[in-house]
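Thread title: Can someone regenerate the structure for this chain?

I was given the following input by a collaborator and told the matching structure tokens would be attached. They weren't. Posting the sequence so someone can regenerate them.
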Amino acid sequence: MSKFIHKTTIVDENTTIGENTKIWAFSHLCDGCKIGDNCVIGEGVYIGTNVTIGNNCKIQNHALIYEGVTIENNVFIGPNVVTTNDFTPKVGGDWKNDGRFKPTFIKSGSSIGANTTIICGVTIENNTLIGAGSVVTKDTEKNYLYYGNPSKKIRKI
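Best answer:
Regenerated them for you:
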């Protein structure tokens, strides 16, 4: 077993990278993040402080996974997916302790389509499929397809 980290990738201190994981060019893994085994992290991906990503995940190019996000096993994150962690962003203040910081959970087996935005504080349940270009503003139910802005439950999968 081995891992591959492209020479242009920035890996901050206290970062854990699992076996057989590949991390491509110009990505940034921030302090304390944990990446599981058998993952692929695409080009230009940002993974924030203390983010946890499970095993067998694929994070496509230019995805932004901010602090407060937990991704379980076997999850696909499409290119240019954006997560948020501050419900009402503004400059200044103690944003982590003023009630605006909201953790987000993406459960096992889920697939998030390209250019999706995930508003903080939601849970994307197991085996959920989010269509490309969606804006997820509420918790999902497991085994359903969601898409749109805001995303809506379409059908069972």
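The chain has one domain: 1-157.
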